[in-house]
Specification:
Radius of gyration: 19 Å
CATH topology of the largest domain: Rossmann fold
Number of domains: 2
Strand content: 15-25%
Number of helices: 9
Largest sheet: 6 strands, mixed
Shape: globular
CATH superfamily of the largest domain: Leucine Dehydrogenase, chain A, domain 1
Helix content: 25-40%
Number of strands: 12
CATH class of the largest domain: Alpha Beta
CATH architecture of the largest domain: 3-Layer(aba) Sandwich
Order of helices and strands: EHEHEEHEEHEHEHEEEHEHH
Length: about 270
């Protein structure tokens, strides 16, 4: 039986949420650690009045996803230093007094790349210019990367992001010559279930290159399949998804949850059934 005084809900705000595995993952951890909580999907389009609603409800924290990672900032009382630099928030900690925003995407991305050896002198190519790309650009800035190419369907959005960072070239050409790239990152929706594939041929790329696709549903995207075909190092979106979720959970509950083989296999099974 739940003690209502101790019960604190967590959840995710965004739209669409049908494909999100965040509820499964966080509720798995909540149950494992015997916490008086539950993780709810909250498909919301309009967040203009969210601040007042959250403060009245009994939420400990929230994840923020597409399309609200940037617009949520206007609703916050306080924002973490890295999230302020990134200009995107994916995690909130809530109380009746204030809402504080964090960005754990940068943690998830960094952890996914940690075990890979990449040549930082080679260009980095990023597809997409959304909230995830903002976090990755901030990470690349901290790594002192000198040559970044940002590819987005609309140049205007990419130019807005590039204003804050040096060493960025802008392109809308997905057929750009990529053979010298050291790291190729897909942060766009291309490759997700229900979206077209990001069809990049990797047969002429240098063998030092690492391919990183932040899409985790499906795990084995066209881009990842191409990387495997060319025997290139790669990182799937599942790595980033798990690590950013772990960081959010730790912010809320002060517990660093375990990521074990059984959990990973269960998530892979759930993805394969969709």
């Amino acid at each position: 039986m739940i003690n209502n005084e101790k019960f604190k809900a967590v959840g995710i705000i965004g739209n669409p949420l049908k494909q999100s595995l965040s509820p499964y993952l966080h509720n798995y951890w909540i149950k494992k650690y015997g916490l008086s909580s539950y993780y709810l999907p909250l498909p919301i389009d309009n967040i203009n009045y969210l601040k007042g609603a959250i403060k009245k409800l009994n939420f400990l924290g929230l994840n923020i996803t597409i399309p609200h990672k940037k617009s949520i900032i206007n609703q916050l009382d306080e924002i973490d230093v890295s999230a302020r630099e990134i200009r995107a928030v994916n995690t909130l900690i809530c109380s009746k007094k204030k809402l504080k925003g964090f960005n754990t995407d940068i943690i998830g991305f960094k952890k996914g790349l940690q075990k890979k050896k990449w040549n930082k002198k080679r260009p980095v190519i990023i597809f997409g210019a959304g909230g995830a790309a903002e976090a990755i650009l901030y990470f690349l800035k901290l790594e002192n990367i000198k040559d970044i190419i940002l590819i987005n369907r609309t140049k205007k959005r990419a130019k807005e992001m590039a204003k804050k960072y040096k060493n960025i070239r802008i392109s809308s050409d997905s057929n750009l010559d990529i053979k010298e790239a050291g790291l190729i990152i897909n942060t766009s929706s291309l490759g997700m279930i229900g979206y077209p594939d990001l069809k990049i041929k990797l047969n002429k790329i240098n063998k030092e290159a690492i391919i990183y696709d932040v899409v985790y549903n499906p795990i084995n995207t066209y881009l990842i399949r191409e990387a495997k075909k060319q025997k290139l190092e790669f990182v799937t979106g599942l790595d980033m998804f798990l690590e950013q979720a772990r960081a959010s959970f730790e912010i809320w509950f002060k517990i660093k949850p375990d990521i074990n083989t059984s959990l990973i296999n269960n998530i892979k099974k759930k993805i394969s059934k969709r």
